[in-house]
Amino acid sequence: PPPPRRASGCTHFIIGRDMAGCKSTISGEDFYGAYDAQNLAGDMAGELGMQTVPSLNIAYTEEKGYVTADVAKAENLTPLSLSGTKFRQMLRGGGDIPEWFAFKSVVEVLRAAVKEEEEANN
Fold this sequence. Notes:
two-stranded parallel ribbon, extended
């Protein structure tokens, strides 16, 4: 039989900032740097058989909308943020989720899934 396809037909691999992130349970310090996964994947692109695409760290600011986090810091812009915990609470509670954080169509799908899960557990 032919050998398995390494990349399953994929040509590109998008890697976010801090994809290798995990913290020590003792010190709370990260084991890896924020860009270590991107660097490793870039080094291994040939072996992976894919082009790696590092994802930029994007921030949403009051003044300019979406910019890279580096630009927001350099220009002293005001970034808006929403934690994953707060987002999940808003999803379950029906709170308004800002469009800069998630598209309305995505929120609708997630809310439907949450409702389905809750109904299945009751």
